[in-house]
Every structure is written in C-alpha cells, then in structure tokens.
C-alpha cells in the first residue's frame, strides 16, 4: 500500500496581511526529518495560496534548504505600497528649504525678524509660483492586485490682488507687501502704526496688510484682508487676518479675545490665548493654558518647546518638545478633524449653493439680453450696463463656486482620515495628558521620553525611542 504523500499545507500555512502588502509562512507543526520539499514545490504552494507578487527568493530558499532552522513566522513576500500624490501649493519667491532640525540644534535663540520684516515688492517683481499637484503611483499587493493611489489635490491658480499670472508664475503689478494665500498671492498696500495701538489710532479694519511696530493692548480690534504683523506683544485683543498673523514677542490674553488667521500664525509664546489658523501654528517657546487650533499642523520645538494645560488641536501633526508638566496639569491633544469642521462644511455648502443659484439667475438674464441682440434690437444704455455687470457677477459667482468646491474636496479628504496624524514629543511626555484621535482617547498615566503617538488598527499607539 502506497504511503500518503506529505503536503506542505499539512505543516505550514500562509497568512496575508490585511493591507495585502505582506505574506508570512506560519509553522502549524514540526515536519518530520524525512519531509522535504523542493523550491518548485514551494513555488506551487505559494501560488495556490494566492501569493503571486513580491516573493522574497532568499527566504524561500532558506525554508527549502532547512525548514527546522527558521524562526517563524517568516515573511515570504512583500508588496509595493501605493504612493499618493502631493497636493498643489503656492511657493513664494526667494524661499529656500532648510533643515529645521539642524537649525534647532545650532541655536535655540528666538528670532522672528525673518518673518516680521517682509520686504516690499515693486511692480513687475516675481512674487511666487504654483507648484502643480503630482500624480499618485499605484502599488501592487502580494496577490498581484493593483493597489490604487490618489492623485494630489489640485486647485485653479487665480491672480490675486495687484498681481498677474504668466502660466503658473505670479508677478506684481503694483508696489506693496506680499501676502501669501492658500491658492494665490496678493500684493497689498501697507497700513503701518509706528508704536503701540492706542485710542488715537483706534481699531483698524484695512483692505491690505497691517503692521504694528509696538504692542496691541486689551480690547482693541484689527482686521486685515492681508497679513497682520505685531512687533510687540498682543494682549486680550481681537485680531483677524485673511492671510497670516505674526506676533514678535508673544500673546498674553487671560482667556479673552482671539487671533484668527486664514493662513498661518507665528509667535514666540501663547499664554491663556485663543488662536485659530487655517494653516499651521508656529510657536517658538511655549503654549500655556491656551486653546490652539490649526487646520494643518502645530509646531513648538524651539527653546523649551513646552505645552502645558489647555487644548491643542491639529489635523495632520503636533510636534513639540514637552507635553504637560511634573505637576500633572491636565493637557489635551486632538488630532484629526478640527472642532469647527461641521460648521465650516455647512458654510461652504451654503456658499456653493448660493453661488450656483446666482450663476443660474445671471445666466438667464444674459441669455435674454443676447437673444434680444440676435433679433436685431439694440440694447439701451441701461441694458448695456446691466449686461456688463451681469458678466462680472457671473465670473465672480463661478470663482466663488470653484473655491467652495475645492475647499469641500479638501475637507472630504480630511474626513476620510479622521484617525490619521501624528503627535511627536521630542523630550518629555508627562502624566495626565489626554490624546484624542477622532472618537478614540488615551490618557497618559506614566512619564515617557521621546515619544511618538499614532493611530493604527483601532488603537492609539505610543512608541518610545
């Protein structure tokens, strides 16, 4: 009677990871010494188990030659992960990328001169360019399946205030101060106060950039269509900029007032402050008992780089030196969808709806006037003015609709990655720190050194170096 042939599957099984980027051999039992299989047997077995791509030949050879000498599980195949494309962005003129970590090692001195003293530009000067989004690169799973990538988010480049476009390049058509926006660059006129804001100057509401060469006391208001730059301190005042806000000395607000920026916020420290940035928040020294929200990331890595008390919220990354303190002051970190996400989404949807309705109404009016011209009837002077205004309104409505649609698309990308993001603590992660990734929460009950916190497989992971 013939002996039953011993099959590989009697002793081993193949486990493919959930993302299909890795396959491992698992030993279910110890094979007999007489049980041997050729490389061809293993290749056939892997194929039968659905492993068709990225086979690690040296590991297959090892298990073929001496299966008893292997430490299981053994990775037998590795796929290629998809690479998503990079989003389009605005690159201002004279921007040179530098190694931030190297700069920190060289000096912890605080110097905001570079961001406060923005040079003026003249008519005809090159101010920046749009860097196009890149295409994603598809990956391949170990079973041969194509893993689709995403192309980087793009946007329509538009000429900003006092600028003109030449393809992706932006040039000034008037002299002024550059204000870098999310999708364009403006060249704004400058309103400047040579000292502190006081009752003589009063509150400021300006269509360009505002520079205060002193401090902003409690209760005052500054609104700017461009950027706001304060060379002194900001107390419990109200600052709103469609561009960025730069505060040289720092913010001490006693939980009153706020700073809102459509783009970034740069400052030395935040003490009992309320700040909201559509882009990034850069703090040189410390964030103390503050509410700090960023549409992208928050960085506090120079000087002491300490965050104590309050609530810190960012979508992509929070990178600091120290979280909490030895006194166990409650400190909360939120990563993922920003707190005002739902409100902002409704605003954009309403804006898109209004823009579409306005476009439809104006389009009907234009068609009626054009039809009248086709029939040979001359338009009255009032109708010609109406037609000109209608065309301008239509262009404005289309731009408004495109902007709202692009912003909604970006928010959709964020909502699909509600538990993504990273918290990096370069020095000390203290106890009584709360970490939130979407609906998930983890409280830190011990002190750690040099920690990275991420979210994977439904759990908040704490990795300590």
Brief synopsis:
With 465 residues, this protein is α/β, with parallel strands linked by helices.
| Largest beta-sheet details | 22 strands, mixed
Strand content: 35-45%
What distance separates the N and C termini? 61 Å
Strand segment count: 34
Rg, nearest Å: 30 Å
Q: Low-confidence parts, pLDDT < 50 over ≥5 residues?
A: 95-110
Number of helices: 6
Task: Identify the overall geometry.
Answer: flat
Structural class: alpha/beta
Helix content: 10-25%
What oligomeric assembly is this protein in?
single chain
Task: Outline the structure in words.
The structure is a single chain. The protein is α/β, with parallel strands linked by helices and 465 residues long. It contains six helices and 34 strands. The strands form five sheets. The protein has a 22-stranded mixed β-sheet that branches.
Task: Label this structure with key terms.
465 residues, alpha/beta, 22-stranded mixed beta sheet, 4-stranded antiparallel beta sheet, 6 helices
Give the topology, please.
Elements: E1 12-16, E2 22-27, H1 39-48, H2 57-65, E3 74-78, E4 89-92, H3 100-106, H4 113-116, E5 120-121, E6 126-131, E7 139-140, E8 146-147, E9 163-166, E10 169-172, E11 176-180, E12 185-188, E13 190-193, E14 204-206, E15 209-212, E16 221-224, E17 228-230, E18 233-234, E19 238-241, E20 245-247, E21 250-252, E22 258-261, E23 265-271, E24 274-277, E25 281-294, E26 297-300, E27 306-314, E28 317-323, E29 331-335, H5 341-374, H6 381-415, E30 422-429, E31 433-437, E32 440-444, E33 448-456, E34 459-464
Helix pairs in contact: 5-6
């Amino acid at each position: 009677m013939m002996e039953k042939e011993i099959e590989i599957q009697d002793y081993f099984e193949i486990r493919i990871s959930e993302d299909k980027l890795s396959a491992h051999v698992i030993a279910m039992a110890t094979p007999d010494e007489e049980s041997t299989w050729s490389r061809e047997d293993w290749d056939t077995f892997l194929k039968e188990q659905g492993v068709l791509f990225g086979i690690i030949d040296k590991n297959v050879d090892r298990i073929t030659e001496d299966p008893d000498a292997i430490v299981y599980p053994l990775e037998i195949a590795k796929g290629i992960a998809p690479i998503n494309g990079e989003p389009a962005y605005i690159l201002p003129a004279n921007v040179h990328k530098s190694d931030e970590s190297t700069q920190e090692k060289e000096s912890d001195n605080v110097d905001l001169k570079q961001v406060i003293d923005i040079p003026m530009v003249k008519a005809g000067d090159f101010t920046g360019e749009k860097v196009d989004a890149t295409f994603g690169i598809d990956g391949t799973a170990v079973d041969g399946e194509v893993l689709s990538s995403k192309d980087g988010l793009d946007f329509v480049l538009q000429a900003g205030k006092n600028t003109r476009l030449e393809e992706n390049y932006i040039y000034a058509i008037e002299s002024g101060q550059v204000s870098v926006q999310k999708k364009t660059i403006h060249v704004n006129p400058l309103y400047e106060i040579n000292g502190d804001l006081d009752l003589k100057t009063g509150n400021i509401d300006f269509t360009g950039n505002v520079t205060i060469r002193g401090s902003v006391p409690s209760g005052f208001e500054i609104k700017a269509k461009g950027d706001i730059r304060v060379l002194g301190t900001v107390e419990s005042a109200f600052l709103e900029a469609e561009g960025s806000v730069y505060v040289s000395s720092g913010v001490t607000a006693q939980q009153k007032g706020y700073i809102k920026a459509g783009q970034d916020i740069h400052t030395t420290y935040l003490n009992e402050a309320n700040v909201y940035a559509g882009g990034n928040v850069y703090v040189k020294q410390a964030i103390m008992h503050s509410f700090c929200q960023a549409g992208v990331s928050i960085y506090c890595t120079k000087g002491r780089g300490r965050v104590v008390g309050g609530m810190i919220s960012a979508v992509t990354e929070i990178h600091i030196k120290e979280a909490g303190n030895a006194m166990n002051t409650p400190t909360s970190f939120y990563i993922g969808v920003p707190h005002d996400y739902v409100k902002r989404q409704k605003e954009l949807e309403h804006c898109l709806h209004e823009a579409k309705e306005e476009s439809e109404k104006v389009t009907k009016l234009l068609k009626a006037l054009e039809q009248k011209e086709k029939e040979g009837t001359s338009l009255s002077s009032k109708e010609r003015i109406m037609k000109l205004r209608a065309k301008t309104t239509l262009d404005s409505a289309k731009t408004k609709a495109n902007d709202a649609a692009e912003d909604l698309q970006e928010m959709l990308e964020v909502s699909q990655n509600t538990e993504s993001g990273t918290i990096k603590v370069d020095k000390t992660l203290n106890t009584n720190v709360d970490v939130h990734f979407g609906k998930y929460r983890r409280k830190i009950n011990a002190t750690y050194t040099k920690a990275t916190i991420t979210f994977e497989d439904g759990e908040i992971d704490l990795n300590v170096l």
